[in-house]
Specification:
The chain is mainly beta and 1454 residues long. The protein has eight helices and 110 strands. It has a six-stranded antiparallel β-sheet with strand order 58-59-60-61-62-63, with no helix packed on it. Strands 1-52-51-50 form a four-stranded antiparallel β-sheet. The protein has a four-stranded antiparallel β-sheet with strand order 2-3-4-5, with no helix packed on it. A hairpin with a 4-residue loop joins strand 44 and strand 45.
Length: 1454
């Protein structure tokens, strides 16, 4: 079988040729180490001119377009484009990430700037509003954001002399911002008469509120405050793209190719015209300048970087060159020298030295170049052009040998034959022409088999054959030089190919992902000697595969750096390097090839960290060579936690039913019952899909979870206390290091994590807003201040929280596959590990992001599925348990050894002071020493080891262990079967808690005269539970099939059980041994009932729409009830045992006579008069009120009436248990409702004496006991009911004023029609910028300068006077309250009206005003604290709160 694993060699980025000058500015700086930092494509580059060496920052995954240097000149911030762009702050010395800022911008990040002390960073987005954001970048925290402008912003800067002030500029505007609290407020610059309103391209701030800015026409505008005070005309001949401030003054660079230096008062010092220097050329345009001491760096539009020494300013030194704007497709390598040739749409062909990392020759052609080839002797260089011609140059001096044009369409591929005699030229008009080299390139043949454009070609080693690929993915063969097509397979078999650059063919099948378009791999090149090949694709990725690569979906190593299409890739002549070129980023990357043997020496070098899986990641194709997943894990990964409807949707659903509510509210409804229930005990523990969710608390109680309940269990008293803050399944639980607080995460559309106190059962913090669908893992840090959580969304997002503040610190996408566990490093709370399906990752926090590194397995094996993990005794040691039963031991990110620990997966691990304890699917608990050298002791969980005091029975020996915890001299063990056991160190095992296993629980029956109930579940067990204070399972029996219903006989001696295969059993209620069994049906038995009294008949309802009636004594079927149109859901006998009431899935209420099963029609009034032996029906007029308003969405699944017929308990699909007064006539009755189950409550039953209500949850597998409390016996408790869905008018309705105020809608006025007709265009709409759809695509070049508008000097304009607010009449009282206050000991009164805050001086009668709001103020309050005298907060209609300061001495507003 072909090897599908990734190759063991790898590539290392060694050099990047180019600089991003186009569409960017101010992106080139000196660092503190006198290195030069800039970017190209998706790579941050730090270049040392002294050593001629480059370092790379590879944390981005798309084009970088902005860069800012921190004031310490070591840290760099870079921003990228993309759908979810982010900002990286990184260290230019180590090129490692320090912080990631994300989740705010869209489209891209256009500009960045650090403030004076480097604590804050401002960024501007490329979205339609050009959003401005201010960050506390170390914490990764957004401090403030505001819409920037309707048009592009080109530059932003902090005012270095005034704190909290910024300036931004762009298309036809400049804005001066002040940051106050968390709000950014702009003021537009006033151009006035001093200068024309025009686009401002760059700016620099100086002392005394002076700002210098560079304009599109080449003038410099000088601002004081927000006013334009003077212009320096003709500073440059065209737009000024860059302005850089330093100690000596300012440097500016413009489109005219000049750099000018100015002193601190902006008096000119000197001008350097780069066009006039040796390296200069016409049309040179400066995009970036940086002046430091006597050196000036200049970046140009055409990807060059110049360094100028001020003394020799006419001799700039060219330190970097690259291709100019335009796609780059052509690449060829010299056959004998370390040279690469590239040609681009910028019409230049360039030759690069791979040893000196320099451009050694360039030549400009007439046409854009699309492909290149060097002859076998290295003398000729052939170039294919976009217009269908090709040119041959001499490599030596770049002189033309020949220029031939035989085609109209672009030439996309050309190749010399290995013997040097022929040149094959493939064009976009689907043909390949063959030219004779010696005959001065005379055409000697033509290949015309293709139907599409030619993409790739290779010659055979003997130059007799040519293979081609075309745009349809076809591979064709031709005989040379005639060009005759070869179709005979035998003839093709023995061909040796001189090179392999084709993308289709058996040898390269594996390079294609399993499902992919045939066009997205642009280039391939095979290294026959090293048996590897390299590919380039449309996603900016260079990949390394084994060669040959026969099977689809092979593994690879991948390398990021290019941003968009990688158009071509080639090995150098000696296979030392790989050269790749980027289409749109027009950069040339040179990669060093590191073969296997070298790898061993470099193993101690940690892999480059990456935000996106970069550098050399294994492939994402699925791993065929991985062993099958363990069945239990397989099952678990397939569980979906998605719900059709979440409890969070309830308010919206009710909103949609508004009409119904209104009609219901007008009718008089029965009030809710006075009696209530309280959760008393829960049987069950969620083990089947959770792990490590079981702990001892400080006081020795046990905390765990089941359904939506956090349970604190006291094993001495056998009592439980409950945390009922969740409203859906809890999936994970972690305990605080002090063992007093617990964090639990639940399922939900916007799922929440609750941190609560196990003593008081009160919530301390609820964290929401970041996890979709659910939270599957949580962990506290060792200091207890942080919490890590993992979601079950598609990316398994990992979030790090400061839980007390409820603040998200960092987040990252974890993995496509399920993550099982997250653990925070106990020694360093900024580090964590996650484990999951084929996943072991080490993370460290960087600002708002987390940076992950995959565990390095090296030669020790392959990435296994990890099920659990813990940290060890030092910060770099970690241990993980695999799905195959091994424990992996990690140091830093390297696997150092594995130890076989269990048969089957290791599900749980716990670290002790001096060792570890593990538990696995094999049902064994193992104690280990602190290095996993030896196993000290094992405990097998077996029935034989159960201690006499156990509360229940062990279902099977060696149950799969899912959770382990230690404390109080015992080991606490949770099993997949829903059992919690306590293992004494000396051996005996005590069973403490148990419940049903995975599978829905539907069947529930209470005993007619004992505190006992029976349950039957899809887990194929029938269980009997003791409801008295001993709360344990009395008996259990395994069944051949799962069951959905059960019922005790009236004397309590027999128990009937209906099974899912259509059969049913009657068993002895004490021993659970069979008495009799029948099978007359194929479908699920849905309900089963003994007739009252002697229990003569047994009615058996099934999902195939029939009820069978059996005579118990004779064991014969005596009647069949027909006529239901759907499956049977509920059944009740009347007191006489003669009449049967039946509910069906179609919501029919039917009546049959027993024993024959004749259908009867009974009017609803009569139904109530009949004495029913039990009432579990959900239909009929006497329980109409139990159906909720949103009855279409959710079903009432079960009901049960107390024996005094006063209270009806119901269970529904939302997991609510409700109590109604009976009869519940009229729609939407009032109720009390209780949440503890997570989704469906499948059954509810009162005990024989009504002292307890028993409920079972379907999928949550739990059995809950609720005590029934009479009216008056109510102390206020947190778990008492929420009230009903709607409160009608007569419940103490509203007073008319309150009603009116309640109905005021504050959003309406924007939509209302205009009060008076208006003419003309509103000022802010006059120069309408294009909408988002019409906008040019992201980061295109600058708009061309519009024709300058002439001022009509002749017309005199009247100056506009300013208006000053003097007096306001009015006060807002109609819908506000508590909004008048005294200030200054009664000297002043503060109140508001419209959008003005008013301070009224009582003595003088004068008013002063706060006018920063821009809409109606609705509320006002005064800070009472003596430290903050006269601070007032006012809130307005839109989403903004201002804090205003009232100054005493002026009695005025600021």
């Amino acid at each position: 079988m072909a090897d599908r694993s990734a190759p063991s060699c790898h590539l290392r980025l060694e050099w990047v040729y180019g600089y991003r000058g186009h569409q960017c500015r101010n992106n080139l700086y000196y660092t503190a180490a006198k290195e030069i930092v800039y970017f190209v494509a998706g790579v941050g580059v730090v270049y040392s001119p002294r050593e001629h060496r480059q370092k790379f920052y590879l944390g981005h995954q798309d084009d970088i377009i902005s860069l800012a240097l921190h004031p310490d000149r070591v840290l760099v911030a870079t921003g990228q484009v993309g759908k979810e762009p982010y900002i990286c702050v990184w260290d230019s010395y180590t090129v490692q990430t320090v912080s990631v800022l994300k989740d705010v911008h869209t489209h891209g990040i256009a500009c960045l700037a650090f403030d004076l002390d480097g604590q804050r960073l401002v960024s501007v987005g490329l979205d339609s509003k050009n959003t401005v954001c201010v960050w506390d970048w170390r914490k990764g925290k957004l401090l403030s954001m505001a819409p920037g402008h309707t048009d592009r912003i080109f530059d932003i800067s902090w005012d270095l002399y005034q704190p909290n002030k910024l300036v931004s500029c762009g298309v036809k505007h400049i804005k001066f911002w002040s940051l106050c609290g968390n709000s950014l407020t702009p003021k537009r610059g006033v151009f006035g008469k001093t200068g024309d309103l025009q686009t401002i391209l760059c700016l620099a701030c100086a002392r005394d509120e002076v700002t210098y800015s560079g304009a599109l026409n080449g003038d410099i505008y000088v601002w004081k405050g927000i006013n334009l005070v003077r212009t320096i005309q003709g500073a440059h001949a065209a737009g000024i793209f860059s302005m850089n401030a330093c100690e000596e003054g300012f440097a500016t660079g413009g489109r005219d190719g000049c750099v000018r230096l100015w002193d601190l008062n902006f008096k000119p010092i000197t001008v350097i015209d780069l066009r006039e220097t040796d390296q200069g050329y016409k049309g040179l345009s400066v995009r970036s300048v940086c002046w430091r001491g006597d050196h000036i760096l200049v970046g140009t539009q055409d990807s060059e970087i110049f360094e100028i020494v001020v003394h020799e300013r006419n001799k700039p030194f060219l330190i970097m060159q690259g291709h100019c704007e335009g796609e780059l497709w052509a690449l060829a390598v010299h056959p004998t020298k370390p040279l690469a040739m590239t040609g681009s749409d910028d019409r230049s062909v360039r030759i690069w030295s791979l040893i000196d990392h320099a451009l050694i020759a360039r030549c400009n052609m007439e046409e854009p170049i699309r492909c290149a080839a060097v002859s076998t002797d290295g003398i000729h260089l052939a170039l294919g052009m976009k217009d269908g011609s090709f040119t041959v140059l001499r490599v030596r001096d770049m002189t033309e040998v020949v220029h031939i044009k035989d085609r109209k369409e672009a030439i996309h591929e050309l190749k010399y034959s290995p013997d040097g005699n022929f040149l094959a030229v493939g064009s976009n008009d689907s043909s390949v022409d063959i030219y004779g080299v010696v005959q001065r390139y005379k055409k000697v043949g033509e290949c015309i088999g293709s139907l599409s454009f030619i993409t790739h070609m290779d010659w055979s080693s003997d130059s007799k054959y040519l293979q081609t690929n075309d745009g349809n993915g076809k591979r064709l063969f031709y005989r040379m030089p005639s060009g005759k097509e070869v179709t005979n397979k035998e003839e093709l078999k023995g061909i040796q190919w001189a090179s392999w650059t084709c993308v289709s063919g058996v040898e390269v099948n594996g390079i294609w992902p399993k499902y992919s378009d045939i066009n997205d791999i642009n280039s391939v090149d095979a290294n026959f000697i090293g048996q590897v090949m390299v590919t380039a694709d449309d996603y900016g990725i260079v990949k390394l595969f084994r060669y040959p690569c026969l099977r689809k979906g092979a593994k690879f190593k991948k390398y990021l750096g290019h941003s968009a299409h990688v158009t071509n890739v080639r090995w150098s002549h000696d296979h030392q390097w790989v050269v790749s070129i980027g289409g749109a980023d027009h950069s040339v990357f040179q990669w060093k090839f590191v073969p296997d043997r070298k790898l061993k020496d470099s193993l101690h070098i940690a892999p480059q960290e990456s935000l996106v899986d970069s550098n050399s990641d294994e492939s994402d194709s699925d791993q065929s060579d991985v062993p099958e997943l363990d069945s239990e894990i397989e099952q678990e990964t397939q569980i979906t936690y998605r719900r059709q409807v979440y409890k969070e949707d309830l308010p919206q659903l009710k909103e949609q039913c508004k009409e119904k509510r209104k009609s219901a509210a007008s009718k008089r409804r029965e009030r809710a019952p006075g009696n209530s229930i309280r959760l008393h005990f829960v049987h069950g523990y969620r083990g089947y899909d959770c792990r490590s969710n079981l702990f001892y608390t400080q006081t020795g109680e046990i905390v765990y979870h089941v359904a939506a309940v956090g349970v604190v269990y006291n094993r001495q008293q056998n009592t439980q206390r409950f945390y009922l803050g969740h409203d859906d399944d809890i999936l994970c639980l972690a305990i605080h290091p002090l063992k007093d607080y617990v964090a639990t995460g639940q399922v939900g559309r916007d799922s929440s994590i609750h941190i609560w106190d196990t003593e008081t059962i009160k919530p301390l913090s609820v964290l929401k807003g970041y996890h979709q669908y659910g939270v599957c893992a949580v962990d506290f840090s060792a200091d207890g201040k942080r919490l890590a959580s993992v979601g079950i969304d598609d990316n398994h997002t990992i979030v790090l929280w400061d839980w007390k503040k409820g603040e998200k610190l960092s987040a990252v996408r974890g993995s496509k596959d399920k993550i099982f566990v997250v653990k925070i490093n106990p020694f360093m709370p900024d580090k964590l590990i996650t484990v999951g399906i084929k996943h072991m990752k080490f993370w460290r926090r960087a600002g708002g992001g987390l940076i992950g590194r995959k565990g390095c397995i090296g030669a020790l094996g392959r990435t296994d599925t990890m099920m659990c993990a813990v940290y060890g005794w030092t910060e770099e040691m970690a241990f993980s348990g695999t799905s195959t039963g091994d424990v992996c031991i990690w140091r830093d990110v390297f696997l150092i050894k594995t130890v076989k620990a269990h048969d089957g997966p290791v599900f749980s691990m716990h670290a002790l002071e001096k060792g570890f304890v593990t538990g696995g699917k094999d049902g064994v608990v193992a104690l280990w020493d602190d290095t996993f050298e030896r196993c000290l002791k094992t405990y097998a969980i077996k029935r034989a080891a159960l201690a006499p005091g156990s509360k229940g029975l062990l279902l099977e020996d060696n149950p799969s262990i899912r959770a382990i915890s230690l404390g109080h001299g015992h080991i606490l063990v949770g099993t997949k079967n829903g059992e919690i056991l306590e293992v004494d160190k000396s051996g005996p095992i005590t069973l403490l808690v148990q419940g049903h296993m995975e599978g829905e629980v539907w069947g529930l029956a209470t005993h007619p005269h004992l505190p006992i109930c029976a349950t039957v579940s899809d887990d194929k067990t029938l269980r009997i539970w003791d409801l008295s204070p001993s709360h344990c399972m009395l008996a259990v029996r395994k069944l051949k099939k799962g069951g959905r219903c059960c019922c005790f006989s009236p004397d309590g001696k027999a128990l009937a059980v209906g099974l899912n295969d259509g059969s049913f059993l009657i068993v002895n209620a004490d021993t659970l041994e069979d008495l009799v069994s029948f099978q007359h049906r194929k479908d699920v038995i849905s309900e089963i009932r003994f007739s009252p009294g002697a229990g003569k008949y047994l009615a058996v309802a099934s999902c195939d729409n029939f009820v069978d009636i059996y005579n118990v004594m004779s064991s014969k079927r005596v009647g069949i009830c027909k006529g239901a149109s759907s499956y049977i859901t509920h059944m009740d006998w009347d007191v006489r045992g003669k009449l049967l009431q039946v509910n069906t899935g179609a919501k029919e209420q039917l009546f049959f006579e027993a024993p024959r099963g004749k259908k009867q029609t009974i009017p609803s009034l009569e139904v109530e008069k009949i004495g029913w032996a039990s009432w579990t029906s959900v239909l009929g007029s006497c329980c109409e009120g139990i159906w909720p308003i949103i009855g279409e969405v959710t079903d009432v699944t079960a009901s049960c009436l107390t024996s005094d017929s006063k209270v009806l308990a119901t269970g529904d699909d939302f997991g609510f248990v409700k109590l109604f007064r009976y009869p519940a006539r009229g729609k939407f009755g009032k109720f009390k409702r209780y949440v503890a189950h997570s989704t469906h409550v499948t059954n509810v039953r009162w005990t024989y004496d009504d002292s307890l209500l028993i409920t079972v949850g379907g999928a949550d597998t739990s059995l809950m006991l609720w005590t029934y409390e009479m009216e008056g016996h109510r102390d206020s408790r947190q778990c008492d009911s929420e009230e009903s869905d709607l409160d009608s008018e007569e419940d103490g309705g509203y007073d008319s004023d309150v009603t009116r105020e309640n109905e005021i809608n504050y959003t309406i006025k924007a939509l209302s029609t205009n009060i008076r007709p208006m003419f003309g265009i509103k000022p802010h709409l006059q120069q309408k910028e294009p909408t988002l759809d019409e906008r040019p695509p992201v980061s295109r070049a600058l708009p061309q300068p519009e024709k300058l508008q002439t001022n009509n000097v002749g017309k005199k304009k009247r100056p506009i006077e300013d208006l000053i607010l003097e007096l306001v009449f009015g006060y807002r009282g109609k819908d506000c309250r508590n909004n008048v206050h005294y200030l200054n000991d009664g000297a002043d009164v503060i109140y508001h009206t419209a959008s003005v805050g008013i301070l009224y001086n009582v003595a003088t009668g004068s008013q002063s005003f706060y006018q920063e709001h821009n809409d109606d103020i609705l509320c006002l309050t005064v800070n009472q604290h003596p430290k903050f005298t006269n601070i007032v907060a006012t809130g307005q209609e839109t989403q903004q709160i201002c804090q205003l300061q009232l100054l005493l001495f002026t009695c005025g507003m600021q």
